[in-house]
C-alpha cells in the first residue's frame, strides 16, 4: 500500500467522515482515495473545494458539527491554510491536516521530498500558539499516526498535523491494518458549563453544533462564554497561555518516539524519511557507539528525551531542510548538535551519515 | 418572541447609531422565526466586518470566522450535517472582494444556505476604504478622488453563477426584505439576499449622506422595482443615474447540494 493511501485508510479507520481538499502533488492520492471511499460510507462527505483556504475552512466548519474532519495538502496549499489554522487554534477546533511535504519555497519541487515546513507548522500562522505535529517514516506509520492524530485532536481540541513527505507518501510497503483502532472522542461539555471554560487539563468539553448549547465561536479573543473581549490584556494573556500550555504541559504524554541504544555517544535525532537511513546505519551497519531517537511527535517538542543518553558526545540531526529542528535541539542540550542538511529531494545515503559520525568524532 | 433569539447579555451591540445592520438583522430573525426552524438546529455564520458581527448577538450556535471565508466554513457545516439550517451574514467586502471565489463557487454548487449581504458599499469596520461595490465617483479613504473601478452587481453575479434564489432590497424595504429572506430560507439551494444599506459613519460622512435618513431617502427614491421596470421601460433602456433594481431576481430549481437525503 502507498503511504498516502495508508493515511487516508488510517483516517477512515478512525471514523473520519468529512474530507475537504484541493489537489496538489504529492498529496493528491489522499483526496482521490477519500473521493473513492467516502461516498460509499453512510454519513461521510468528500468535497473538493475551490482552494486550500476553503478546504481548511470547510474542515473546521464540519468539525463543529461533531464530524471527524481532515484535509491533505502540500507546501503551496499549506501556506494558504495558515490563517484558518490559527482560527482552528483559537477556536479549539479538533481537525487533522496532512502535509505531504515537497521542496519549497514557492512552487519549488512538486515531485520531490522535503521537510521544509516543519517550522511553518508550528509558527506559520500569526501570534503565539502551539499545535501537535506527527511525522511518519513508513507506510505503517502513515496509517497509525493519521488514526492517532484524530484522537489527539479530540483530546486536546487542536489541529493536529501529519507531517509526511513525498518519499513516505509515495512509497509502497506492506502494512498491517488492525481490525479496529483506538478511538478517543472529546470530553463532552458538562451540562451548564461554559463552552470555553477549561477543565483541569486546560481543555474544555466539546458540544457539537445542533445539540442546543448555543455556542458562539469566534477567532477574536473571547471569554469562557465565547463572547469577544478584545481589549482586556489579562483576558488575552490567560486565553493564549492556556491554549499553549494545554499542549506544552502535556508534551511528554503526547510524545511518541523510539530510542535505540541509550548508551550511544553519537545520537541521531530524526523524524520522517531520514529515520530510514538512520536505522540502516545504526541497526544494520551497526556503526559503533551510535544510537538514535526517532520522533514520531515533533511538536510539542519532547525535549526531555534528549537527556536519555547519558554518554552522548554529539547529537547528529539529518533533515531534509537546512537544519530546522537541529536548532530546536540545540536550545536544549550542552553537547554539540550537528545538522546533516540535505535538500533537493534525495534521501540521505548511509555513507553521508557515517561520514557525519566520523566528522563528529574528529570534532571532539 | 424574537427576544428568544437574541443574546440579551451581549447588548448593546457595537453598531453606530443609525447603522443599517440592526434593521437587517431584525428582518432576518423575523423571517427565521416564520420558518418555524428549531433554534437548536439553526446556525449563523459570518466572516469579518461590522456586518459579520451579527451572529454574535444571536442565541444559536454560530461561527464568526475569518475575513471572506464564511461561505467556505458554512459549506463544511452544511455538508457535514445537512439537517442543520445555515444562514450567513456578510458584507460587500467580505463577500465580493476577499471572499469572491467562495461566493461564486457556493452559487455554482448551489449549496443549501442563505446568504444575507449587508452591502454598504464600503469597508465599514476598517474605517471606510473602497470596496468592490463602491460606485464610480464615490469617495472613501482609499478612493479620495472618487472610485474609478467598475463595481460588482452582487445579485447579477449570484444569478450568473447559478444560485437558486436571488433578491435585492434595501434597509428601507423592511417588509419586502423580510419576505424575501423567508423565501430564501425556504428555497432549497443557494440564496442570496443583497441588502443595500446605510453606513453613516464610514460611507455617508464622505458622500453627502451624513445623516442616516439622508441615505434612507436615497435608497427609497433610487430603488426601482425590477418587475415594474421590466414592464414599463423599453428594452435596452438604461436605468437613471444612481438608480438600481430591487426585487426578486431569480427563483429556480437547479440541482442542489447539502440537503438531507430523502429517507
Ligand atoms: C485577511 C484579512 N484582511 C483584512 C482584514 C481587515 N478587515 C476587517 S473588516 C474588513 C472589511 C470589511 O468590509 P465589509 O465586508 O464590507 O464589512 P462592513 O464592515 O462594511 O460591514 C477588512 C478589510 C482582516 N480582518 N482579515
Ligand atoms: S461603521 Fe458603518 S457599518 Fe460599521 S457599525 Fe458603523 S455605521 Fe454600521
Ligand atoms: Mg461593507
Task: Identify the CATH class of the largest domain in chain A.
Answer: Alpha Beta
Overall geometric form of chain B: globular
Unreliably modeled segments of chain B: none
Order of helices and strands of chain B: HEEHEHHEHEHEHEHE
Give the mean pLDDT of chain B: 97
Q: By helix and strand content of chain B, what is the structural category?
A: alpha/beta
* Greatest interface: A-B, 40 and 34 residues
Could you tell me the strand content of chain A as a percent range? 15-25%
**Separation of the first and last Cα atoms of chain A:** 44 Å
Q: What is the ordering of alpha helices and beta strands of chain A?
A: HEHEHEHEEHEHEHEHHEEHEEEHEH
Report the major sheet of chain A.
Answer: 8 strands, mixed
Write the layout of secondary structure elements.
The complex is a heterodimer of chains A (364) and B (263).
Chain A: H1 3-13, E1 16-21, H2 28-37, E2 45-48, H3 52-64, E3 68-73, H4 75-91, E4 95-103, E5 109-113, H5 120-123, E6 132-134, H6 139-156, E7 159-165, H7 166-170, E8 216-218, H8 233-248, H9 251-254, E9 257-260, E10 266-270, H10 274-284, E11 290-295, E12 297-299, E13 314-319, H11 324-330, E14 337-341, H12 350-363
Parallel strand pairs in A: 1-2, 1-3, 3-4, 4-7, 6-7, 10-11, 10-13, 13-14
Antiparallel strand pairs in A: 4-5, 6-12, 9-11
Chain B: H1 21-35, E1 42-46, E2 61-64, H2 70-80, E3 85-91, H3 92-96, H4 100-109, E4 114-119, H5 154-161, E5 165-170, H6 174-186, E6 191-196, H7 212-222, E7 223-225, H8 226-232, E8 244-251
Parallel strand pairs in B: 1-2, 1-3, 3-4, 4-6, 5-6, 7-8
Antiparallel strand pairs in B: 5-8
The complex binds thiamine diphosphate, iron/sulfur cluster (SF4) and magnesium ion.
Iron/sulfur cluster binds next to loops of chain B.
Features:
heterodimer; A: 364 residues; Rossmann fold; 8-stranded mixed beta sheet; 14 strands; B: 263 residues; alpha/beta; 8 strands; binds thiamine diphosphate; binds iron/sulfur cluster; binds magnesium ion
